[in-house]
Design goal:
Layout (H helix, E strand, L loop, with lengths): L1 E9 L5 E10 L4 E5 L6 H8 L7 E6 L2 E2 L5 H8 L2 E4 L11 H6 L3 H4 L1 H5 L5 H13 L15 H13 L5 E5 L7 H18 L2 E5 L3 H7 L2 E6 L2 E6 L6 H8 L4 H4 L21 H10 L4
Parallel strand pairs: 3-8, 3-9, 6-7, 7-8
Antiparallel strand pairs: 1-2, 1-4, 4-5, 9-10
The structure holds adenosine-5'-triphosphate (ATP).
Length: about 280
Amino acid sequence: MLTLSGVCKRYPTGDRALSDIELSLPRGQITALIGPSGAGKSTLIRCINRLVEPTSGSIRLDDTELTRLSGRELRRARRAMAMIFQEYALVDRLSVMENVLSGRLGHVGFWRSFLRRYPAKDVTEAFRLLERVGLSHALDKRADALSGGQRQRVGIARALVQSPQLLLIDEPTASLDPKTSRQIMRLIRELCAERRLAAIINIHDVALARQFADRVVGLRAGRIVFDGKPDELSAEILTTIYGEEDWDTQADHERDAPSKSKTQSHPALMSPISALAALSTGSTR
Ligand SMILES: Nc1ncnc2c1ncn2[C@@H]1O[C@H](COP(=O)(O)OP(=O)(O)OP(=O)(O)O)[C@@H](O)[C@H]1O
């Protein structure tokens, strides 16, 4: 369904973030992207929906060559790819329901969305999704009145209301406690199975990747150094991906320290309505 071929990314600073990436994601498969800090995981995820421009290579979603698109065609193609962020990227002063409906922005147009005049079928779908993610009791709550886990559930519902084929997920559990992290990963897994969605998840927590992904791709210095099943992740392979470490001791407390957000307040990574709201309040929280 999604095929990356020979994808490279060199930033204007000269940093070579990705080299010759070859990757094919079938429908319904959950792929965990692991690797040390700076390996290129976020860059790879953002190249897929062109938030970051690949320097060369091909990225195809079904029959569409994404790297050739611009303007309206690119916006249309992006509807098929929904993003879920580490810091949720919600508009705090809007309600849970309004945040979810903002996921329809690419379909209904900016002004209709800004004026909150969504078609009835979108509202019905948003209700259904909020019930599915366990938030039907909190529709009218402001986003800033929610816990981290609840905020991520809103982020998931907002992604799904977009009716995507593919989920691009950037460190979904990095700000959450271990139990909530597992609940969120389980929910993502169930929803992907229900909708036959492909997902690619940038995740630092190897234990979660092992438990919830169908496939693990290991990146190191911008190159794929492992592509296989979660149960193939031996100490030797972890060393190939991350470098030398005592992995057997590490297994007793596998949770890495949360890494800091790069997405929360960057207007380029927000939906236009979020960015507008952020500009009007001077904040994204
Ligand atoms: N906007 C940018 N401008 C210049 N270089 C960048 C930019 N973003 C990332 N890089 C560089 O590209 C490389 C890959 O970074 P990237 O953020 O994709 O890695 P990552 O695996 O997601 O890291 P982390 O796990 O710490 O989030 C790094 O060398 C980084 O310094």
